[in-house]
# Entry
Amino acid sequence: EGSPRRAPARPPRGSRRTGTSPPPSGTPAATSVLPSLPPRCRDLQRQDAGRRQLPGVQVPLRLCNKENSKLRHVEKDVLIPQIMRDRAKELCSDKVQAFTKCCQETGVLMVVKCRQENTALKDCLVGYYSDPSFYEECKAEYLKQREEYRATGIKKKRQKFTQNV
# Structure
């Protein structure tokens, strides 16, 4: 009555048994996983065998679905707007250069003296940011990049916009 209860002794951590034994090597469960995958995933798995890939890079099965065009929040709110900003800066490059030149020439007084250039730059950029067709173009570009990444596992380097000042 007064003795403390003891928990039964446990086996070492890596040797726990779940009560199920692995199937014998000749059963279908132990054979290749490829037959149960969708056709696109099987193709990707076969391509992986012949393609030189980075070590440890595999195509996750949930990404094999070609119809997987749903966007996560980070894609909608961060990644696509980032592409939009980069492309809008390229398309408004003349106004960006004019504003940059004005700021470099005036120094501290740029807030007062560069209002016209700043307004022109903002109007150009906001025009692209608020254009639904421009958003769809950037979304299509992002989905293409994402599909390439999911197929190859290799990230494409983004080209940075450089100013010729």
